[in-house]
Amino acid sequence: MAIVRIYTGNDGKSHFQDVPPQLRATSGGWPLDAEAMVYPEAGLLLRRFDPQRSNPWHPAPGRVCVFTVSGAVEIEVGDGTKRRIGPGDILIAEDVTGQGHYTREVGGEPRVSLFVPMAMHAT
Fold first, then answer.
1. Among candidates 61, 44, 53, which has minimal Cα distance to 3?
2. Do the beta carbons of residue 75 and residue 102 sit within 8 Å?
3. 24-117 has which CATH code?
4. Rounded distance, CA 79 to CA 26, Å?
5. Which residues on neighbouring strands pair with residue 83, listed in sequence order?
6. Could you tell me where the DSSP H helices lie in the chain?
7. Which of 61, 74, 94, 122 has the fewest C-beta atoms lying within 10 Å of its C-beta?
8. What is the end-to-end Cα distance of the chain in Å, rounded?
């Protein structure tokens, strides 16, 4: 997985910059769980989930758009419906109150997802 930044240099020209994620282990007891803040100014968070991980009912930590890069997760919602989210899928999580959802990693590889905070817009 590559993270590549394009920016304007002091010379007024566009340049590439490779942004290698610095994954750091997270607490919680799952050996492969890790995260890296990719672009702090925008709150872009890259997370890796252990393939054996599950997370009991929980609301989303905030309104986020989740881009799955690799691996897969099964998500169950309050009415019992389950959906599999895999590479290339985009999840918009807005259940920030109430029962929330249940997640179970599926497949044999860690899931890697990019979490992008979503701002509320005025109507």
1. 44
2. yes
3. 2.60.120.10
4. 30
5. 75
6. none
7. 122
8. 37
Domain coordinates in residue numbering, the chain: 24-117
pLDDT tens-digit series, residues 23-43: 998 877 788 999 999 988 999
Is pLDDT above 60 for 122? no
Q: Which sign, positive or negative, has the C-alpha torsion 35, 102, 74, 32?
A: positive
Whether the pLDDT of residue 56 is over 70: the answer is yes
Question: Do the bridges between strand 64-70 and strand 111-117 make them parallel or antiparallel, or are there none, so unpaired?
Answer: antiparallel
